[in-house]
Amino acid sequence: MRLPLKTEYACQVLAQLALTYDKDGVRQVEDLASAEDLSANYSVQILTTLRQAGLVNSRRGKNGGYQLARHPDEISLAEIAIAMEGETLVQSSPGNEGMSAAPVHAAWLRVNEAMLESCREISLTELIASPAEDTGAQDWVI
Amino acid sequence: MRLPLKTEYACQVLAQLALTYDKDGVRQVEDLASAEDLSANYSVQILTTLRQAGLVNSRRGKNGGYQLARHPDEISLAEIAIAMEGETLVQSSPGNEGMSAAPVHAAWLRVNEAMLESCREISLTELIASPAEDTGAQDWVI
DNA sequence: TTTAAAGTTGCGTAGTTTACTAATGTATTG
DNA sequence: CAATACATTAGTAAACTACGCAACTTTAAA
Questions:
Q1: How many C-beta atoms lie closer than 10 Å to residue B123's C-beta?
Q2: Structural domain boundaries of chain A?
């Protein structure tokens, strides 16, 4: 069960926005994308989805850019994942005509709920890289 | 994040085996597959995986078939999912060179752990259809 | 000891999804 | 009105999923 890269990227971009939240940080796509090693074009698509979900605000034209809609403490991993993937994080099919299809589906619905709950308990603030340890991003070879 | 059909099918087939566990039920593929509305061919592949994981035993030749390796209470959804998909249920990529890649990955690892824990708490017994309500499987049209 | 039932293995593949790129449209500011 | 930056849509190569098929091996029973 692979977590879509798109969802991970969304987390990274939002983490990047969270870094400059208090500095009234309006950031441009190019800036965000390069900081997270993503293509600008793809980042735009992700940011558009996040805007439609109400997690970020955007401004067009010169000096435009993106900005978190709320304080990083008030944005949970659950909201991010739901914005990218829809309400059910663990999509199990209501299924075929098999005798056990229904109870199996019900069980996975419970798992989905547990996962959602776990995602609600993680805030965007926890996704920010601690400036002390740049964790490999600055590793470079001559 | 779609739960693979293969994993759901594995649950259904095992639930079917659990139904006849106390009756020393050795069941044949054709039987299991039709009860769960699956193709026999595909079910074989699933059952083979489950056997390699040690969840079922098989006997070849005439009067062969499959059988649960343990009591349904002693088999958890976690074991089933791991048998089909590997240790990590929520696979997040350790990722790119982005600044926030590491903390984001760490967060999803926590979610994975929560999901695993939730799956450990659901036993195969809970996947058995209650005989009272056949929940749609017997619906038929002339 | 034949024979047929039943599991085992591996290959092939159509259809879908993912992770992008690219091109074009639209709003904002100086 | 021109430069800038977000918005939207279309297109696509690669990977993955959910199967089907066929050849092989094992075992019980006749």
A1: 19
A2: 5-86
Place of tokens 């949970």: A76
* Interatomic CA–C1' length for residue A48 and nucleotide C24, angstroms: 17
The CA distance from B102 to B81, in Å, is: 26
Give the rounded percent of residues in chain A with a pLDDT score beyond 90. Answer: 85
A17: which strand partners? none
DSSP A123: B
Evaluate whether A89 touches B1 at the Cβ level (below 8 Å). yes
CA-CA distance, B1 to A115, in Å (whole number)? 12
Summarised one tens digit per residue, pLDDT across range A54-101 is: 999 999 999 999 999 999 999 999 999 999 999 999 999 987 889 999
Which CATH number is B5-86 given?
1.10.10.10
Low-confidence ranges of chain B (pLDDT < 70): 132-142
Asked whether the beta carbons of residue B114 and residue A115 sit closer than 8 angstroms, the reply is: yes
Say if residue A135 is exposed, middle or buried (CB neighbours under 10 Å; 0-12, 13-18, 19+): middle
Q: A81 to chain B, minimum CA–CA distance in Å?
A: 10
- Strand D nucleotides, any atom under 7 Å from protein beta carbons: they are 3-9, 17-22, 25-29
CA A52 → C1' D7, Å? Answer: 12
Straight-line distance from CA B64 to C1' D29, in Å? 13
Chain B partners within 8 Å of A95 (Cβ): 8
**What Rg value do the Cα atoms of chain A yield, rounded?**
18
Q: Does any strand C atom come closer than 7 Å to the Cβ of A93?
A: no
